[in-house]
Amino acid sequence: MTKFVLCSTMIPLPPPHVFLTVVIIFLFLAFGKKKRRSTNKDSISELPPGPKRLPIIGSLLQMRGASPHQALNNLAMRHGPIMSLQLGEILAIVITSPKAVMEILKIHEPAFAQRPRLGVVESLSYEYSSFTFSPYGEYWRQMRKICVLEFLSTKRVMSFRSIREQEVWNMIKAIGDFDEKPFNLSDLMLSVINKVIARALLGDRCKYQEEFISLMKEVMLLSGVLEFPDLFPSMKFLQYTSRVKLARERLHHKIDVILNYIIEDHKAKLESVINNENKPPAGGDLVDMLLHLQKTSDLKFYITMEVIKNVTMKEPLSERAQTLSMTQELFSVGTESSSIVLEWAMSEMLRNPRVMQKAQLEIRDHLNGKSLVKESDIESLGYLKAVVKETLRLHPPIPLVPREARERCKIMGYDIPSKANIIINAWALGRDAENWINPEEFLPERFLESSVDFKGNSFHYIPFGNGRRICPGINYAIAGIELLLAQLLYHFDWGLGDGKKLPYVLDMEETFTITLRRKNPLVMIAKSRIKFADEGTLPA
Ligand code: HEM
């Protein structure tokens, strides 16, 4: 089958006869639309400059060859930091300058506080109850509030400390057991991140945890595939050519079954507690909290089963729709990105032994022979924190931040039509020589005396986005990443699994889906440096 590369993800084109039919119908529709457009006000608007557009496919051919974040950056160098691009039926406005970011995510933010509708969200979320992709409005506001209060507030993130410390410690022991033989560090790190979030979302004793995690891994694989029909949303019949859509729907069904079991399990537990005192169980997990809210809150929206499954809340959908979408949603958005940062941080330090040694020295000095790194130790590790920031600069896990224009607006003097897709190239911003000295070099020192941070104050450094849809999981993510990295650096000295000499041979190939991760896993050898603590010394 012919393949078209966009997002370095392969977009399978439909077979030639289907393609030809599509072309003919599209020309017919396009001709019809052209006539109408001459009377449309948008036709006289001044769009940002951009590459030439061919009929039907627009500028799709310009995206060939490179990964999308790179292809878009290459085009931006020719056409400017605010650029318009026609991708099939989709009009995209690509942003690569801090000034345009500030206009979009600060000055005119409400006009851009929406995300585009994507096929992947439609087929994997509950009746579009995903709040990450829900339209800007009351539902999104309430869902975000619940999500932050019940799961991502500083207090809640702190309360997951013992889960993090235990799971990371289990990983350190597992690495010790490899006894200087090669092992897949990438898999191990992802598995810890998965376990921590699964325990925080579903509780410690959830008997469906393993099934849930393994289905969520499939979600991540299928989430990143952007297909040909996504670029022609008005042609509904194209959806029938999509095999990925079918696979997603089957997967969604399997997840639904497991989430129903999980909810029933939690409901039974919760009933007994609420009967006694009208409070959720102390230290309850997220599903407990949502079920409790579903019963007791007087919010304008009902927390539906879909919401709890996607972990969310929504206007009444169907009866059964009442409870799981947030669980699924937080798991999928929360795990992949953190494990990606860990992989790139280790990769960059392996290529830059000076940085690794400096980070190890800082931790080993600070811990002074203690057998275990605890979260309370991390605050003093300024260099380690700078390593994480520098990793996020060079390798933002979500390199292209997606937004949609809710209304017509002017940005840097250009007209942005309503419904245009906005693509903010966070990857390009992090490597722009106008904003950074020696941008391609991994230099954590640049953050030591700098006020630049990822919490929304800097428009040239936006690994977590910015504005009202900024990532609400920053504290959660950073706590896990720093602890895991500190333990890896403290306990072990590192080498490559194939025995080749560092730093020259480490490949840094990327693979782009929605996220940008290492193409090949990190296969490593770890030499123990610090005597392990007994399990008894771990926090309860
Ligand atoms: C290093 C790890 C992470 C990175 C780099 C990251 C990055 C991002 C980015 C770029 C956005 C879009 C922001 C925007 O449009 O301005 C986002 C949104 C979001 N993130 Fe994260 N994220 C990470 C971890 C997490 C974690 C751990 C969670 C939760 C457990 C989480 C939950 C969310 C949610 C719910 C949204 C949607 C917010 C909304 O639309 O209102 N993220 N994230």
From TrEMBL:
Keyword Iron (UniProt): yes
Cofactor: heme
Keywords associated with the record: Heme, Iron, Membrane, Metal-binding, Monooxygenase, Oxidoreductase, Transmembrane, Transmembrane helix
UniProt cross-references to InterPro entries, sorted A to Z: Cyt_P450 (IPR001128), Cyt_P450_CS (IPR017972), Cyt_P450_E_grp-I (IPR002401), Cyt_P450_sf (IPR036396)
Transmembrane segments: 12-31
Top-level taxon of the source organism: Eukaryota
MF-aspect GO terms: heme binding; iron ion binding; monooxygenase activity; oxidoreductase activity, acting on paired donors, with incorporation or reduction of molecular oxygen
Positions with a binding annotation for heme: C471
Similarity comment text for this entry: Belongs to the cytochrome P450 family.
Protein name: Premnaspirodiene oxygenase-like isoform X1
Organism: Punica granatum
Primary gene name: LOC116201393
